[in-house]
Amino acid sequence: MITEPVPAKSGTRLAALDGLRGIAAAGVAFLYHPLLELDPAVMAKAPAPIVWLRDWGWSFVDLFFLISGFIFAHVYLRERRLDRAGLADFAVARIARLYPLHLLTFAICVVLFLGAPENTWYAFLAHLLMMQAFVEPLGHTFNGPSWSISVELACYTLFALGAVSGERTLRWVTAAAILVPVGYLVFFASAGGPWIADCIPRGPLGFFLGQVLWRCRERIARVPAIVLVALMATGLLLDMGRFSPLLPLCLLAWPAALCLSLRIPALASRPLLWLGDRSYSIYLVHFPLLLVCIPTIESTTSGWIAAAMLLGFAAVVLVLGDMAYRRLEVPSRRAIRGLWQRRRNVVAQGAVAA
Questions:
Q1: pLDDT single digits (tens) 184-198
Q2: DSSP readout, 261-292?
Q3: Across-strand partners of 26?
Q4: Could you report the per-residue pLDDT of 132-184, keeping only the tens digit for each?
């Protein structure tokens, strides 16, 4: 959803993960959130997979975190590309990637939904500073799903500080970022628990677990595909009772899905790569539109009409996501990076002249 397509040393990219990210974005934007708004009578007649998507579709965000962690390790750890000298470049690249589209969709939500009681000035400032994950009610202020962008930015910060401090420090950061959230979820979270328990720990858990998967990629490549399929099925079906359902999904299902995806050439097809490239735009654009459409969606009592509405909603989001990607996301990223590079060149030339 968030990380860019990554060129590998050979000129290729982790294309399968881009395709997988596109599928996850579509699952959240086109199914999970809209399905929550459908009349219960309509959902009562829905097939079991659709009901599962309504109940557990939120966990696609955990797959996003895993993918981001894997790709960041692939880019920055393979050749030790991140050091103290490159820390500013890293920060600018991340802001250039995340902030412009976040700012636009946030501004749209301010115009449309400022009067909502949960959209306080405190929430306004938190969204402006991309700290909305630390404001209650989590996921319910302005562009709600952007809470995960805020958490991911915090993961980037942890990763960068660990990476520039050396391999040993990064390994300690990775261990803590996985074990602390797991312990927290086991002891405090539940399926209906508070947002702070069910959301924030998911970021570092998924992101740094993705980095562990990257470090173990050669060993995992020797694991039979049927074993990965079994792990994925177990994670999707396992009932953890009073413990958070995040655990089997985060620790079994989605890691297995990520590893399995690297063996599926179809995930690198052009349509899925197109979707993956636009996953961040789709993710941020869909929710404001959904909020506008909720009265119509809620009033639908026919399953066929509901299906047609969901298809129409998905089509509009795809168009808007494509426009946001081509007209704002890519140009603004290039402009910010170009401006930063020109500034660095000027500073370097001044130092040489002195």
A1: 777 765 545 544 445
A2: HTT-GGGGSHHHHHHHHTHHHHHHHHHHHHHH
A3: none
A4: 988 777 778 899 999 999 999 999 999 999 999 999 999 999 999 999 888 87
Mean pLDDT of the chain: 87
Using an 8 Å Cβ cutoff, are 22 and 279 in contact?
yes
Q: Which of 32, 15, 3 is nearest to 287 (CA)?
A: 32
120 in the Ramachandran plot: left (φ > 0), alpha (ψ -120 to 50) or beta?
A: beta
> Which helix (H) or strand (E) segment is 24 a member of?
helix 15-26
pLDDT tens, residue by residue, 91-126: 999 999 999 999 999 999 999 998 889 999 999 999
CA-closest candidate to residue 101, choices 250, 286, 290, 324:
324
How far apart are the C-alpha atoms of 84 and 117, rounded to whole Å?
Answer: 43
pLDDT, tens only, 303-318: 788 888 889 999 999 9
Q: What whole-number distance in Å separates Cα of residue 50 and Cα of residue 19?
A: 21
Residue 207 in contact with residue 69, Cβ under 8 Å?
A: yes
Sequence-separated (6 or more) residues with CB below 8 Å from residue 200: 133, 134, 138, 151
Helix, strand or coil, per DSSP, at residue 208: helix
